[in-house]
Amino acid sequence: MSGFLAGLCVAILPLLAAGFWLGRRTAHPQNLGGLGTPVEHATFETLHTASLAAPPLRAGLTEETARKSARRLRSLLGTDALCLTDQKQVLVWDGVGSHHRTEIMERLAGPLENGRGEAFPLTCDAPDCPVRWAVVAPLTVDDRVHGALVACAPRESAVLVRAAGEVARWVSVQLELADLDQSRTRLIEAEIKALRAQISPHFIFNSLAVIASFVRTDPERARELLLEFADFTRYSFRRHGDFTTLADELHAIDHYLALVRARFGDRLSVTLQIAPEVLPVTLPFLCLQPLVENAIKHGLEGKAEKCRLQITAQDAGAEALVVIEDDGAGMDPVLLRRILAGEVSPSGGIGLSNVDDRLRQVYGDSYGLVIETAIGAGMRITARLPKYQPGVHSAGRLTDG
Q1: Which of 183, 227, 236, 337 is the 20 to 30 A CA-CA neighbour of 166?
Q2: Closest-CA residue to 152 (of 96, 103, 88)
Q3: Can you give the residue ranges of every domain in the chain?
Q4: Which fold has domain 215-386?
């Protein structure tokens, strides 16, 4: 899908440049600057204008995004007026002749219903109004009409009809990308809710039971653990941001491990080796904690003797390398592959598959978890995190205040 969309964009814009823009600009060599031939200049201007119109449209079709992009789109077409509509109203009118809004919406019933473009004359009693003709090009996403792009001009023009159709298809591509972005956001939110649901019944019950066991024998210890529990749950159930920093995630893990140590005592030995320079690295929220919980659940709880857990975060050039390793009971590699593939979902398995999926969605398939394990041989989980990824940034440190 993404390759097709990119190809469509590449195909549309040079067509506009070579056709409509060339027809308007070749007579003005003084505008060429140092960009070479008129065709090269026209192509550059078209691509530049389109690049400025695209970002607002990537947020969907609303009054605000239509307002921000309409002037750029009108510049692409070189028309006296342009409007963008949804299914019910004109979202923005850019240019002259805004008194035609009502007439335009009345004439859009057919194109919005059947998804086919249309051109028609406008009725106007104002002798000085330059807008006499309208070209309607529907905006569609997944075969569903979201609205329309309407270009208005003094007279009928076959070139404008074709150009408006091409620009409308380009706008539709941006709206489709916006729809994909929104679907991705909803998926990430659902996955975070799934992780929170996993944390709730298992961890909260055990933590409260441990805290209760200290209330009579060691009230001060119970108070400290209650504060650790409060800090951890506040972080885990926060409602802002899909991303966090490695420092904040490790801080939450520290609260989590304090509660686990209170439960298991000397049976758990934890070693942390964290390079300070990777602490600001951004990563998906609740990305590492489920991996640590998995190590505790399937490591320490699966064996009677002492369990060692090691967490390292190293600077690896353009990446941060995070490794979570335990010497616990381990897992059958075949079962692990089925868990990551979503074929089975045993108790606690959602953590591994969820984190693996989220890393791949954010950074690409090459950034999934690397897991080494065998029955009785413990587990080593490696996560690679790019130090910088466009569009990935933390919502900021969650303070204790």
Answers
A1: 183
A2: 96
A3: 2-181, 215-386
A4: Heat Shock Protein 90 (3.30.565)
Q: Measure the CA–CA gap between 299 and 378, rounded to whole angstroms.
A: 7
pLDDT at 152 over 50: yes
What token pair was written down for 371? Answer: 């897991």
Helix (H) or strand (E) holding 269: strand 268-274
Angle between helices 289-298 and 246-264 (to 10 degrees): 20
pLDDT at 2 over 60: no
Q: What's CA 119's distance to the chain center, in Å?
A: 37
How many residues does the structure list for the chain? 401
pLDDT in tens, 41-83: 666 676 777 777 778 887 788 888 889 988 889 888 889 999 9
What superfamily would CATH give domain 2-181? GAF domain (3.30.450.40)
| Separation of alpha carbons 76 and 163, rounded Å | 9
Residue closest to 326 by CA, chosen among 270, 247, 249, 286? 270
Residues 23, 24, 28, CA angle at the centre, nearest 5°? 110
Query: What's at 256, amino acid-wise?
Result: Y
Query: Of 59, 52, 63, 101, which Cα lies nearest the Cα of 81?
Result: 101
**Per-residue pLDDT tens for 159-199?**
889 989 889 988 888 888 877 766 665 555 555 555 555 55
**Phi-psi category of 36—alpha, beta or left, where left has phi over 0 and alpha has psi -120 to 50?**
left
Confidence at 29, pLDDT banded by 50, 70, 90: very low
The pairing of beta strand 268-274 with beta strand 307-316: parallel
Q: Listing from the earlier edge strand, what are the strands of the sheet with 118-121?
A: 90-95, 81-85, 144-153, 133-141, 118-121
Type of residue numbered 70: A
